[in-house]
């Protein structure tokens, strides 16, 4: 009983003491209140997914803060060790935007643009796994011209080269397949065009570069094919850093102009190709008469299997019956469309070849103005309606006029033909590009190509 009374007394004292700790209006209490220690919520669990980063084709590592520093316009690829859901947003004062290349559950590929001309911006990419856990990556994007970077070049001289260009410093390096570099400067920007300043240029300079849509169109002073001694002249080019790398995205029907340079001269070929079956099959009509693929005589229809080439962005062709190698091509995204490109030595090695294929359209439509180079080493301006085409070298006092007509009842819908005396030319266009090629069998026209950027 005594023990119980002592326990009750102790409890009474304890309750009184606690009551005296109150902070009423009269104050009081002999004990200081105990300040509660806030409980920190546990840090969110981070996914164990492994993310591997490459920038401009090279393995990249984060800095001491865990960030990846990149230049605007450079290709960025993030590979995930398992399927994830990707999301991302710009952070900080400078606005960074994403120029998407492709996104699949195990890979994110893009280029980033920084709207600021003076300060870096940042972009946070988040990979979220199926169990709801996520892993962030932060890219710090330097200020600079988004158009700068690395491009794959397809030249109408019949060469495939690499271009690294810095539009802030206005410098470039063009590298051929043998590793030979041509370096130089660019003139001040004039309505989007940059003149090429190179020791290869002599006389009137008709070499220019015009960036647009992750593409560069223009002309460059290439070595004249098979010339001995080596001489240089301006030839049209298309350069892209937006080549299609997903095979199923290759599908399409393309009207194709091809020009060849050999030791005996230049030649032209005009036709249509079709890629189907998820990018695994190509059909070409090789008849001397220009047919749509679906109208091509069976004896003139060549079928090829398509496979990824060892060179990134390129695709290899092989005969479906014999597996004989038939060449390489690429598909580039321009103006929201696919464009077929090929350049390099022919499979036999007897000539240098350039091909461009524009998507087939229901009809040929006109445009107000276009500008670009030609294999006659001129820089040209042109315009067109559905029935007429006007063409003139820059600085010329007069233009050549063509009345456009249909190629034939079984020919591609988006192609037109026109004669100028004994000379004959073929015409086609896409959303951003227009092309003219000379017909075969005429020394004045065979092997001629004009390639222009549609301005409006």
UniProtKB/TrEMBL annotation:
Superkingdom per UniProt: Bacteria
Assigned keywords, A-Z: Signal
Protein name, UniProt field: Uncharacterized protein
Signal peptide: 1-19
